[in-house]
Each structure stands twice: as structure tokens, then as C-alpha cells.
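Session log. Operator J.P. requested a structure for one protein chain; no other inputs attached. Running the standard single-chain path with C-alpha cell output.
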Amino acid sequence: MSSASDDFWDRPLAPEEFRSRVAKAIAELETAEGVVMREYLDWFCRKYPTGADRLAYIRRKMAELSR
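Structure written below.
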């Protein structure tokens, strides 16, 4: 049985909303760590531009870890 709070966490986000939330979260980190996180995120999104690409990467890495 699903609760209302689960719906909040499980609902899909539109790409623009996701990017907006990520940008806001990173902007709040005004430290060197925030800069590094932004660089990693930018690299990851360039290397794996679509959701399908990102899921394939995660599945590959999870399979490697579970061996």
C-alpha cells in the first residue's frame, strides 16, 4: 500500500524540473566541493545524455559490483 509521501518520491520529474532542482542544490554549495560536484555532474550528463544511457550505465556498474 502506497502512502502520499511515497507518491512524492516516486513520481517522475520532467527533465526541466530535474535540471532546475539539481542546479538549485549545487548552487547552494558555495564551496570547492560544490564546484567539483558540478564538474562531475556536467561530465556525466555529457557522457550519458539520456535517461536510458544513464540507466544502462547504472545497470552495468551494479552487475560489476554484484559479481
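Operator note: The two ends are 33 Å apart (CA to CA).
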